[in-house]
Design a protein that fits this description.
By secondary structure, this protein is mostly helical. Helices cover 42% and strands 0% of the residues. α1 crosses α3 and α2 crosses α3.
Length: 108
């Protein structure tokens, strides 16, 4: 046994949590924030997201930078990409964005 080692901790590897990239949105307020977070979480590029949603890479950049937001017609593809609804039902039971539900229903 080496000097200064605790016998039962010799094989334990201690790591610190990985710090988030400064590219991560600080708060998830917009659809673009949610898209950016998911893209960074799964480690893909904007061009890959653009292909999945059928828009240009510049469009994804604009959404992620909150220059503008997606049109309703892209919401079904965005929801599939995210795997969740970034605009859930809010506390009073009303929908934050009922147009999203209408767009999804029209796609079915």
């Amino acid at each position: 046994m080496a000097s200064g080692c605790v016998p039962f901790l010799q094989s334990v590897k201690i790591t610190t949590p990985k710090s988030l990239s400064p590219e991560y949105p600080k708060e998830l307020k917009t659809c673009g924030d949610h898209i950016r977070k998911m893209r960074l979480d799964i480690n893909i590029e904007q061009k890959n997201v653009a292909e999945m949603i059928s828009v240009s890479e510049a469009t994804i950049s604009n959404w992620e930078c909150n220059i503008n937001g997606p049109q309703i017609k892209f919401m079904p593809s965005i929801l599939i990409f995210l795997g969740y609804d970034p605009f859930p039902i809010i506390n009073d039971g009303s929908l934050e964005s009922p147009k999203i539900l209408i767009a999804i229903r029209n796609q079915e």
